[in-house]
């Protein structure tokens, strides 16, 4: 699902605001250390926004807000308590492989998309 989500974001982010970095890279590990995130657990997206690291439902809602309409409408989810939103996020994360399957090969970005990847 992760790579499918990144592919979706590459298409949906028409303004090209999002950049992507693998958590396992040297820079990714440095960012995890800087924001005191567990560097051995990669169960969430991390959105760096305004000098803060947002994770789980906060990251997802922040990403959708950056995409603009119609995706920003999902921001109404912020009315729910974070514990509920993160519980839903964790439920989807636990079941993503069963629901969406596993890819046999890794995603290779197109030359145009490659510029959006850091490191």
Features:
mainly alpha; 2 strands; two-stranded antiparallel ribbon; 119 residues; globular; 46% helix
Note the overall shape: globular
Number of strands: 2
Helix content: 40-55%
Question: What gap, in angstroms, lies between the N and C termini?
Answer: 21 Å
How many helices? 5
Strand content: 5-15%
Q: Return the domain count.
A: 1
Rounded Rg: 14 Å
Largest sheet: 2 strands, antiparallel
Q: Uncertain segments of ≥5 residues (pLDDT<50)?
A: none
How do the helices and strands follow one another from N- to C-terminus? HHEEHHH
Average pLDDT, rounded to a whole number, is 89
How does the helix and strand content classify structurally?
Answer: mainly alpha
Order of the strands making up the biggest sheet: 1-2
Written account of the structure:
The protein is mainly alpha-helical. The chain has helices at residues 2-12, 26-34, 56-67, 82-100, 111-114, and strands at 46-49, 52-55. It has one domain (2-104). 46% of the residues lie in helices and 7% in strands. The chain has a two-stranded antiparallel ribbon with strand order 1-2. The mean pLDDT is 89.
Summarize the model shown.
The protein has 119 residues and is mostly helical. It contains 5 helices and 2 strands; from the N terminus they run H-H-E-E-H-H-H.
Q: How do the strands and helices of this protein lay out in sequence?
A:
Layout: H1 2-12, H2 26-34, E1 46-49, E2 52-55, H3 56-67, H4 82-100, H5 111-114
Antiparallel strand pairs: 1-2
